[in-house]
Design goal:
Blueprint (H helix, E strand, L loop, with lengths): L8 E3 L2 E2 L2 E3 L2 H20 L6 H26 L6 E2 L8
Antiparallel strand pairs: 1-3, 2-4
Length: about 90
């Protein structure tokens, strides 16, 4: 009997997106946050717009896209929802 793979991310109960539910999901999320914060710290106040674009905005877009792709592959399929659907009892 084939086991279903363990989910790293679970669909959010409210809204659209995911939340980490395994150590792998938390690790990916923590690495994402650490890298974005590191990029933000590396950008200096005196940086030009071009430097901010090249060294913060573009890498952050790549990291965010990568996080979404990992969550989509290793998590439940997302859809918009607002809480649990009420169970029908008749």
């Amino acid at each position: 009997m084939e086991q279903s793979p363990k989910l790293w991310f679970k669909r959010k109960q409210y809204g659209w997106g995911w939340t980490p539910v395994s150590w792998q999901g938390w690790l990916v999320t923590a690495l994402y946050i650490a890298l974005v914060v590191g990029l933000g710290i590396a950008v200096e106040n005196a940086s030009s717009r071009r430097e901010v674009l090249l060294f913060f905005v573009l890498p952050t877009l790549v990291l965010t896209t990568t996080l979404i792709r990992i969550a989509y592959k290793k998590g439940e399929r997302p859809h918009w929802q607002w809480g649990k659907k009420p169970s029908r009892t008749l």
